Amino acid sequence: MKKIINDPNEVVQEMTKGMAVAHSEQLHQLPGTTVIARNDAPNENKVGIVSGGGSGHEPAHAGYVGKGMLDAAVAGEVFTSPTPDQILEAIKAVDGGAGVFLIVKNYTGDVLNFEMAAELAEAEDIRVEKVVVNDDVAVDDVSSRRGIAGTILVHKIAGAKAEQGGSLEDVKSTAEKVIENVRSMGMALKPCTVPAAGVPSFELAENEMEIGIGIHGESGIERKDISTADDIAKELTDKILGDFDFSGSDTAVMVNGLGSTPDMELYIVSNKVQAILTDNGIYVDKTFVGEYMTSLEMAGCSVTLLKLDDELKQLLNEPSNAMAFQG
Amino acid sequence: MKKIINDPNEVVQEMTKGMAVAHSEQLHQLPGTTVIARNDAPNENKVGIVSGGGSGHEPAHAGYVGKGMLDAAVAGEVFTSPTPDQILEAIKAVDGGAGVFLIVKNYTGDVLNFEMAAELAEAEDIRVEKVVVNDDVAVDDVSSRRGIAGTILVHKIAGAKAEQGGSLEDVKSTAEKVIENVRSMGMALKPCTVPAAGVPSFELAENEMEIGIGIHGESGIERKDISTADDIAKELTDKILGDFDFSGSDTAVMVNGLGSTPDMELYIVSNKVQAILTDNGIYVDKTFVGEYMTSLEMAGCSVTLLKLDDELKQLLNEPSNAMAFQG
Predict the structure, then answer these.
(1) What is the CATH classification number for the domain harbouring B234?
(2) pLDDT tens for residues B111-166?
(3) I want to staple B29 with a disulfide (CB 3.0 to 4.6 A). Which of A11, B20, B125, B255 is the partner?
(4) B132 and B24: one domain?
(5) Does residue B169 sit in the same domain as residue B186?
(6) The DhaK domain covers which part of the protein (chains A, B) (predicted)?
(7) Do residues B260 and A291 make contact, with C-beta atoms less than 8 angstroms apart?
């Protein structure tokens, strides 16, 4: 295992401290936790927005803590849900009286632990609402669909809605609209290694790629020979277009790197995705290319499409000063 | 070679096109070139800023094209200097009458080709000035020092100076001040593979790392057993502090990933760098952690320190809308 770390069991603690020290002008670590929160939270005029999940997806989620996005992010161990007590600390830290909204990715542990934290917060008279993001179309059964890179667009849009003074119900309604209209699909060329495990989570031969990969080092739904960037872009995009009707609509596109795929390759994929969308009469209003939701040093990418209406378009274009949000 | 590409000989062309299509609201590709330029260039009230170099360092350099940074970036083939005619096209595209300033990294090909382009531009009555960035302290001989991640801070500060209406001479003088006060040092755990070559540029055993690495796939100055993140941070930072007196000063710090090193590891390194600087009485005013100047999918990092005075501090904090500049 070639990693720049100290103790494999302390990576999340050290990373969280490193983030807080590096960006102390706008965020801080809640003492005794791996929660990163905005320095200007809580804000009594604004719904607090909290997300999080296992670590190893950086810049998700702490990189999205900032004005116009999240108020706090909770980091679990690598690829492991954060505990309810840590999530509760985040909720308490950002509640200014207008309530707290939780953005959860659809994994069993995350859903259970965020739900439990919400109940504990409500017992302390904090109003809490949540959404569960399930943008990954690799899995046909909708209830089993995982939350992947599309989650970042939920962060952005729900965060902007809260920043504009939307009520807890408004923020929830807008976030649900994003979830209804967002779809993603990913693939990998190389697996990743969880520090505490020390070995890759699966193996891929030199000529193989894996389609429908998740972001937790789990293998995908189909293994096949590596094809060209254009074929990969087409396979991912076609799967998304087959799942949801984007025709005639304005969209946002995200081509997301999973960790070790150079921007060069992501832009080559993006180039083809845009051509496919144009051929399908789909107008691209906004494009994001880069590492937004990673899986440690996995090589691969995902494509995300979000169908936009006027409200979503406007909120997506609102400014944010979150460290990792480019666009 | 596991890469998401189509033709290894077309990666730069396809990437450039992909960038222009993805970010058409703020930049475009000059026809028949691999130059990316701002849509609002040329600006008659502003010095034009041009940088560039070999491809494979993304987001450098096109990711820094935007308000407050570069007006245009010229992309050569992977790890190969762009040709003088392409650089000349960039200069002509961004000259609004106030002159054009070139930011060049200290590699023989880049220095020669940017110089030749400057002469060609001057023959067309365009005023041109330039600086050569040589922040890499891995090499003792100052004239042989390479330009690495510190170049991004030159882009940022020179870009802000030009945006504020500084003359060509003002911009040059400020950029020279950055270069005098910036130092970097890098290391790698894994090499990278140039697409057209198909094999890694050097080999490292499973227990080995390379100190003093460059950003063109070349090997470094010392090979040794992998140590901890703290030891690596100390080795890189000590080398920088031994080269230039940062004591008692305000500084900016950049912990830069070379391509496949997760943000998690970069923040662990940053955590230690900050502690070392504090122990040395050096105040950190601003920290950048992420992938700013990469070497394809190389695993490793570099540390950059910039000594700040009031002018540099102010310019570094000016806003920029360049896609890849977070901070």
Answers:
(1) 3.30.1180.20
(2) 999 999 999 999 999 999 999 999 999 988 989 999 999 999 999 999 999 999 99
(3) B20
(4) yes
(5) no
(6) 7-325
(7) no
* Within-domain flag for B322: no
Residue A2 in any domain: the answer is: no
Asked if the structure places residue A135 within a domain, the reply is: yes
Answer for the pair A68, A323: CB distance below 8 angstroms, yes or no. Answer: no
Q: Indicate if A22 and A45 belong to the same structural domain.
A: yes
Q: What pLDDT is attached to residue B327?
A: 58
| Judgement on whether residues B35 and B97 belong to the same structural domain of the protein | yes
Q: Do A294 and B270 touch (CB under 8 A)?
A: no
- Which pLDDT score, from 0 to 100, does residue A201 have? 85
Q: Which residues of A touch B264 (CB under 8 A)?
A: 11-12, 15, 55-56, 58, 296
Contact B59 A22 (CB under 8 A): no
Domain boundary among A180, A206, A236: A180
- Asked if B313 and B250 count as a contact pair (C-beta separation under 8 A), the reply is yes
- Among B61, B93, B65, CA closest to B76: B61
- In angstroms, the CA B19 to CA B30 distance is 12
Q: How many angstroms away from the CA of A323 is the closest CA of chain B?
A: 6
Q: CA–CA separation, A234 vs B318, rounded Å?
A: 40
Binning pLDDT at 50, 70 and 90, where does residue A220 land?
A: confident
Q: Strand B100-105 and strand B128-133: pairing?
A: parallel
DSSP symbol at A147: P
Which range of residues forms the domain containing residue A112?
8-180
Whether B40 and B81 share a structural domain = yes
> Using an 8 Å Cβ cutoff, are B188 and B210 in contact?
yes
Phi, psi values for residue A124, rounded to 5°: -100, 20
Any idea what the CATH number is for the domain that residue B156 is in?
Answer: 3.40.50.10440
Report yes or no: A148 and A107 within 8 Å, Cβ to Cβ: no
Q: Decide: helix, strand or coil at residue B238.
A: helix
- Which residues from chain B sit within 8 angstroms of residue A15, using beta carbons? 263-264, 267-268, 271
Count of domains for chain B:
2
Q: Looking at the structure, tell me whether residues B115 and B189 fall in a common domain.
A: no
Q: What is the DSSP letter of A134?
A: -
Same domain? B92 vs B197: no
Task: Name the domain boundary from B180, B203, B237.
Answer: B180
Q: What tokens does A147 get? A: 């939350």
Q: Report the gap between the CA of A16 and the closest CA in chain B (Å).
A: 8
Token digits of residue B80: 């190969």
Amino acid at A310: D
Core vs surface per residue A300-326: b (16+ CB within 10 A) or e: bbbbbbbbbeeebbebbebebebbbbb
Q: Which whole-number Å values give the CA distances from B288 to A7, A56, B52, B155, B185, in the listed order? A: 24, 19, 21, 14, 15
**From CA B223, how far away is CA B209, in angstroms rounded?**
6
User: B228–A15: do the CB atoms touch at under 8 Å?
Assistant: no
Residues B137 and B266 in one domain: no
Q: Cα separation of A36 and A31, whole Å? A: 10
Q: What is the pLDDT of residues B61-115, one digit of tens each?
A: 999 999 999 999 999 999 999 999 999 999 999 999 999 999 999 999 999 999 9
B275: pLDDT strictly greater than 80: yes
Q: Is residue A3 part of a domain?
A: no
CA distance A290 to B63: 11
